[in-house]
């Protein structure tokens, strides 16, 4: 379901934020950053 997809995206985002916290301050990693994943999942 769409809800399950949203849950998976949320979990992936949380993992990326824990593993790559520096990505928030690195413009070169924007395409794969947690913030872009959050925007894509909306």
Automatic annotation (TrEMBL):
Disordered, as annotated region: 20-42
Composition-biased stretches (Low complexity): 23-36
Domain of life: Eukaryota
Descriptive protein name: Uncharacterized protein
Native source organism of the sequence: Nymphaea colorata (pocket water lily)
């Amino acid at each position: 379901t769409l809800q399950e997809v949203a849950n998976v995206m949320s979990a992936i985002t949380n993992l990326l934020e824990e593993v790559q916290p520096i990505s928030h301050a690195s413009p070169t990693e924007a395409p794969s950053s947690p913030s872009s994943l959050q925007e894509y999942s909306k």
